[in-house]
Specification:
Layout lengths: L3 H10 L6 H8 L3 H13 L3 E6 L2 E6 L4 H13 L11
Antiparallel strand pairs: 1-2
Helix pairs in contact: 2-3
């Protein structure tokens, strides 16, 4: 989860099954990079593959993931104690 691209990929898959190409287009990353990120997310048990004929789709596996992603977004928006990143 250390990569912003992985967070975007997880968010893009919540409640949906998506191909690597669809995910790459949505997050604006190269196909090969998305494929590598998905491999790491699969290894972590956060994403699973669904094969339908020749098409491979990816989906999130944990029903608590939407709440986790929402918490990460809130934390990212929270002002830092040192004032870094604040306007002004």
């Amino acid at each position: 989860m250390a990569s912003p691209v992985r967070l975007l990929l997880l968010q893009a898959q919540v409640g949906q099954e998506r191909s690597v190409g669809e995910l790459a287009e949505q997050v604006g990353a190269p196909y090969s990079a998305v494929s590598q990120h998905l491999a790491r997310l699969r290894a972590a048990g956060l994403v699973a593959e669904c094969r339908g004929g020749r098409r491979v789709l990816h989906r999130t596996t944990n029903p608590h993931l939407p709440a986790l992603l929402a918490a990460v977004r809130r934390l990212a928006a929270y002002p830092r104690a040192d004032g870094a990143g604040q306007p002004g």
